[in-house]
Amino acid sequence: MVWPNRYSSLWHMIAAPVVWAVHFCAVYGGTALVCARMDAPGLARIGIAAASVVALGLIWWIGRRAWRQWDYASRANRTHGGPRAEDRREFLGHSAWLLAIVSAIGVIFVSLPALFIESCL
Amino acid sequence: MTDSSLHDPPRSAAELDERQPQGQWPPSEEMLAEPVPSDIQEASKERLRAAWKTPTGIRYLSAVNNSVIGKWYSLTAFGFMLAAGVLALLMRVQLAVPENDFLSSDRFNQFFTMHGSAMMFLFAVPMFEAISILLLPAMLGSRDMPFPRLSAYGYWCFLIGGVFVLGSVLFDAAPSSGWFMYPPLATEDEGVGSDIWLLGLSFIEIASIAAAVELIVGVIKCRPPGMRINLMPLYGWYVLVVGGMILFAFPPLIAGDLLFELERSLNWPFFDPERGGDPLLWQHLFWIFGHPEVYIIFLPSIAIASMVVPTAAGRPIVGYSWIVLSAVGTGFISFGLWVHHMFTTGLPAISLGFFSAASEAVVIPTGVQIFAFIATLMVGRVTVILPTLWIAGAVAIFTAGGLTGVMVALAPFDWQVHDTYFIVAHLHYTLFGGMVFPIIGGIYYFYPFITKKKMSERLGRWSFWVTFIGFNVCFLPMHLTGLLGMPRRVWTYPGDLGWDWLNMISTVGSFVIAAGILIFAWDLLRPKGRQTLTERNPWNAGTLEWSHDVPTEAWGARSVPFVTSRYPLWDQPEIVERMDAGRFYLGDAPEGRRETLITSAVDAIPQLVVRVTGPAWCTLVAAAFTGGAFILPTFGIYGPAIVCGVLAIATVIWWLWTATAIIPDKVMKDVGLGLTLPTYVSGPKAPGWWAIFITMLGDATAFAGLIFGVFFFWTARPDFPPDGAAHASAALTTTAGVLLAGTWLSTWFARGLHRAGHVTIARALLIAAPIMASGGAASLIGAVWFPGLQPATHAYPAMMCALVVWSVAHILCGAIMQGYCLARSLAGRMLPEFDADLWNTTLYWHFQGVSGIVTSLMIGLVPRVM
């Protein structure tokens, strides 16, 4: 069986936190711009909501692929400490999946202030 | 960063087939089991010993081996830590009683500034690098770091810069505006203090980045064959994450330092609100560095815990993937916290909310690793070895610091305690628990590896309990002192505010800490000549560094092992015996050269055998001249500083010319176990290419910091750009953009044509390229010069000129690299099939081409749109 390249890629492993980082920059930078230049908190909040939905969607997709790569159901050994290519593949999948969860929590946390704070002050 | 097999398809038709690895991979069990005749063992040992011999006498200073540099580095950092600790004690004496006049206010300011700066820049970060340089190759069964001379250069830069910065305190000339150098206090400061901080520490930051590059390449490319990424010691994961963090955290500070020094020496008003500047820009750039810095300090120390805990528990770590998640997740999220140092600066509440939320989110990955350690200890059979005691103390203290961290991450709470002793207590709990205790635990743990002797169990316990008790006596009351309202950084206080007894207790505690640390220092440094050597694996650990040779040998690993487990010493029972016999890879040095293996990034498939460089003076000379170039401008001595800069560049060129990308006598080499590897590769398989790639990522981050500055001013200031301001010339910025694109493409084409054998055309392109680069640099200067942008009048022209300064320096550096490739080609040191220099130069220009074009747009187009 030929695996896709991403099964042996560190870049794919960190895809979810990269989404978090882009989301964070977009939310912070966007709010700063909209508040400083237009003083339109409503617009900022809508933008944050949209960015968060997109980010969570992407993270969900990354996490789903990682879940498949981890292949949780098929194996009894879940320490991924063996020397075979499968161990490496599952390890990278497992780590990517965990990172997707943390990234999703991060995105949700960071978008929460926009739910409660309604002004640019 | 992907790889799958021994053989990759050649990237071009010209890539010779015999340059691919050939032979047996992975090795069979029969090959591994075949004994090595004892006469061959002895002869190859002799040859290896000769190749790796550490120079003696005065030439000892020219050593570059990781074990030597690592020792110097860590002892120097420890020395700076003790010095910074003495400053703290003197401050505590001053604060012991109200209205004290033991120290003058100015001296007190110098002391707290230097205490913070030295602990951060001269101890915490360098200590991580020092310990990693010392330990990492052994953990990876590698001979040395990939670029030993770079380590040496970094060390000498660190020593010169550290002595300069810390020494200033003896001449009453030290910086005195706090370790974060806030403008306007620091920009308006008279005297040389702020310049010493800026230039001295920039110099050290560059050394830190050099070490980070080396460590990342070490982890990615120097793992032993078979050690796939899922088998790497957790320490390696942490080094990888922290190295990456340094690359993205330090450069914004370097960009900030550049702006700051331009304001100090040329009066360009980046941080002066009267002329369109904004002091908050510095705070942003500083804390984009400063908060990840906290994790840059914390993660390596917790990495030590991740090595000690499985040994103490006598079993593999529980939740390896979870700890990797923790390291990587913390690494990312720690970049979203910086504004929590700026909660009181009046930013919009909603922005504060983002950073408060991220500050709470980072607790999740940070907590996960602590739980993984506890789980490991719970399911293992714990032997309470001395290092475990320090690690346990660390966890206790760090958890307390983490809890107050959760409190101050909430903006309303922070408004109450901002700039009070509550923060002092919080940060010392995190740093002692997250750094000092695990490091000392780690030194007790690794001491037998480093010196082949043991430290004293009894002194270690005394030191622990004295330090632990002293620490809590000193810092626990500070929470209350802070809640009672005592501000930080005051040199004295009136006696009727209820702070007296708390301060007195803290002062007593601080001296108890000092006593504890001194016990440790004595135990560390006391002569151990008559003590017997340690056994080889005193803690019965499972990782490769405990296959070390007792008594010591300079070769690192006797032979580079084939690894199939996370804990090879536990799971591969014959591995040490086979390493000793030279059964594995590179068991001999028939040419008498220092060599190490380079393997693929993810699966550690052998790719290359590289010659690593040996002892040299050029590193010391280059560091001395670099030091001159940074230190002399502090005192306004610009002429000699420029001479030093030129000599530093010349020394580095000489160093590269004589020792790197040497065309080998044989293109392939038998490395043992039936495997033949190339001795020269260029492009993404070569460690040098990775080093350029990683360096340029950091460099691009610094550039992004400057771009951030432009947009920051645009959002924060209504007068950016001011009405009717002169803009950079559109025609000249366009010319610059075109010329820079031209030089980039010329270099790129030169690489392809050169590889295909069209050497003459490639050389012609390499002549044209630096001419176009110089033309591009000249056009950029002209673009701001001719329309008469006056950088001293307003932050807008200053920012545009700063971008030009940054770009021109980089373009000239790129032009030197193009000229270097041309010279190498003309001298017959670079041939179509041996073209690493040209690959690396092209990679540099991929980054520089993009950033040059962005600069042209930023100064020529963007302000007109704004």
UniProtKB/TrEMBL annotation, chain A:
UniProt keywords, alphabetically: Membrane, Transmembrane, Transmembrane helix
Transmembrane segments: 12-36, 43-62, 96-117
Superkingdom in the source lineage: Bacteria
Name of the protein this chain belongs to: Uncharacterized protein
Organism for this UniProt entry: Paracoccus albicereus
From TrEMBL, chain B:
Gene3D superfamilies recorded: Cytochrome c oxidase, subunit III, four-helix bundle, Cytochrome c oxidase-like, subunit I domain
The UniProt record lists the keyword Translocase: yes
Major localisation: membrane
Domain Cytochrome oxidase subunit I profile: start-end pairs: 46-576
This protein's UniProt keywords: Cell membrane, Copper, Electron transport, Heme, Iron, Membrane, Metal-binding, Respiratory chain, Translocase, Transmembrane, Transmembrane helix, Transport
Signal peptide from the UniProt entry: none
Subcellular location: Cell membrane
EC number(s) from the headed UniProt entry: 7.1.1.9
Top EC class of this enzyme: translocase
Entry superkingdom: Bacteria
Alphabetical list of PANTHER family matching this protein: CYTOCHROME BO(3) UBIQUINOL OXIDASE SUBUNIT 1 (PTHR10422:SF35), CYTOCHROME C OXIDASE SUBUNIT 1 (PTHR10422)
NCBIfam families, alphabetized: CtaD_CoxA
Protein name: cytochrome-c oxidase
Species of origin: Paracoccus albicereus
Gene for this chain: ctaD
